[in-house]
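name: query_chain
kind: protein
chains: 1
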Amino acid sequence: MTVPFTPGRRSLAKGALAGVAALFLATAAPGSASASGDSGLPLLRLPAPTGPYPVGARVLHLVDRSRNDPWEPGIGVRELMVTVLRPAVSGRGFPRVAHLTPGAAGEFAALAPLIRPHLPAHGVDWAATLTHARAGAPALPGRRPVLIYSPGGGDARTMGSSLAIDLASYGWTVVTVDHPGDASEVEFPDERPDRERIRTTVLRPDLDAATFRTMIDTRVADLRFVLDTLAVDRVGVYGHSAGGTAAAQALHEDRRIAAAVNLEGYLDQMDGELLPVARQGADRPLLLAGTDGSRDTRLDRSWSALLAHAGPVTRWQLDDTAHWVFTDYAALVPQLHKAGLMTAAGCAAMVGRAVPRVTVPGVRDLVRSFFARHLPVCAPPSR
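structure:
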């Protein structure tokens, strides 16, 4: 089933725009650049979460000794960095987590115009942006449904912070996962003989079929290792682009995943071979969410193959948007445009022409509503 979604249409305005006032109460509106930071450069802001809970964050370094790293075999093991976001008792007195650490921000500043050509090559202090999660804030007691996030190819887990923190503010435990070697940059706690402290991406614009296959296979294995580490048997998984591809395929392979969201990820290999999930179908809830701005024949073919099977699979399309509207770029890119650091065409190419005060809550509502049906949390406290 395909359900078109045009942000701003009256028929969906009530659901998509619920909580907009709260969303922007704690920050400047994501469509406008704010005052300069200490560097004198424009200070980019992320939208605040809308749920009833403060959010605490903890960063973990996970090591899978049963696998080698596919991109750097000399390492000898597969290492992951993850952030665990949980509803907190209180965030007061705990520092807000930086969107990018200074080291990661320095690498990203150099990589940004290479991995995302519309982004500016200079004029941005990527280390100045703060998220709305609090480092060390004590988690609320009790077990909560777990959601795992896999970012897009060439993106770090940090570019999915806004949506992940919003989900955690409604009661889920959300784990965002980096895929080192694939992600733009990943910072580890320390160096080791065969790897530097910050690993940067091996992906190049001329991505070939073998590299894409390795990327998806590795991501699925990474997600399953995180499940092993968490020792949970019922979770939700969501991902963007290559992360969406991995989320859908992981749902097919691992019964511990109860529901998944694929945010505009292909369901085939670059040579046209359909992934098993597309060939055989899904027997647990799967949401396929795409944009009109990045829809193409390859996406239609692979998604249609899956939809041809009977099963709990739904397709949504967000009109007047483009591929990176599912990430933090939805809020950041319009600010870069307003600051004169990006062209209108570049902004539209990345996130579409719909304004972020509509698209940000629209995407949040779509993903949150899906998981509320299939992995519900306890009712929030009355306010």
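note: The first helix runs from residue 10 to 16.
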